[in-house]
Amino acid sequence: MNEAPRSTFVYVTYIRASAEKLWSALLKPEFTKQYWYGMQMISEWKPQASWKLVFADGRVGDTGEVLEIDPPRRLVIRWQNEFRPELKAEGPSQCAFELEPSGEIVKLTITHTSQRPDSKLILAVAGGWPKILSNLKSLLETGKPMSSEAL
Amino acid sequence: MFMQEDAVFRALGDASRRTLLDRLHRHNGQTLGELCTGLDMSRQAVTKHLSILEAANLIAVQRHGREKLHFINPVPINDIAERWISKFQRSHLRALSALKKALEDDHE
């Protein structure tokens, strides 16, 4: 069996865009709110800088720190839920974004991991990531997201 | 759209490959050996099915030390759903599928 009992989900999408354009779409609030249902990631984007994910109405959804940042290739965030007590109680998870350009296409891999087996946080975000990525791909390739209503 | 939908539908049009996806849905991040356990398929056949699923982006493979772990990637399936299912239909569909599951499980 695998080494540690932990929860990992992986999301992969291929987007027709440059790695630099995708990188800024991932990090810049004016981009994220267009495809992330009004949410914004806020950070100074330096190693150890604090990070938060904020709802359209200003509530803080998740917090953490930047663990690794290597523009425009790799970003790793410590990710702690703040708005659902049962998820907050699980403690931190880790979310890695990896960008691999190949010609006109960039492969984006998001790996969200918790050291807890059967993590409810990892299950809770599992419903969200595919929709966010479909929206992001649509925004970068066509100029508009599939759906932009706030949560 | 760049991600070839034909490849996704072809990959899904095979019962053995759907079984492999079901297994990863139940327990994500398995090795080839784990995926083969209890299956009526040769290791070579499983390897071939996994490479078709990977080419269609339905699974992602990650290296963890010496092991290669296979993860289900729900993004292409979501793209298909988004194409034909509107946001307002989702809760009705979820209720219907929960009802079907509850009724059918009752008969077992």
Overview of the molecule:
The complex is a heterodimer of chains A (151) and B (108). Chain A is 28% helix and 38% strand. Chain A has helices at 19-27, 29-35, 85-88, 120-126, 128-142, and strands at residues 7-16, 40-43, 50-54, 60-70, 74-81, 93-102, 105-114. A seven-stranded antiparallel beta sheet of chain A has the order 1-7-6-5-4-3-2. In chain A, a hairpin with a 3-residue loop joins strand 4 and strand 5. In chain A, helix 1 (19-27) packs across helix 2 (29-35). The longest helix of chain A has 15 residues, at 128-142. The radius of gyration of chain A is 15 Å and the shape is globular. Chain B contains six helices and two strands. Chain B has helices at 5-12, 15-26, 32-36, 43-55, 75-84, 90-106; strands at residues 59-64, 67-72. Chain B has a two-stranded antiparallel ribbon with strand order 1-2. In chain B, a hairpin with a 2-residue loop joins strand 1 and strand 2. In chain B, helix 1 (5-12) runs antiparallel to helix 4. Classes of the chains: A alpha+beta (151), B mainly alpha (108).
List keywords for this structure.
heterodimer, A: 151 residues, alpha+beta, seven-stranded antiparallel sheet, 28% helix, globular, B: 108 residues, two-stranded antiparallel ribbon, 6 helices, 11% strand
- Spatial shape of chain B: globular
Q: Biggest sheet of chain B: strands, sense, closure?
A: 2 strands, antiparallel
Distance between the termini of chain A: 39 Å
Helical fraction of chain A:
25-40%
Largest pleated sheet of chain A: 7 strands, antiparallel
**SSE order of chain B:** HHHHEEHH
In DSSP terms, counting alpha (H) and pi (I) runs of 4 or more, how many helices of chain B?
A: 6
| Strand fraction of chain B | 5-15%
Put the structure in a nutshell.
The complex is a heterodimer of chains A (151) and B (108). Chain A has 151 residues and is an alpha+beta fold.
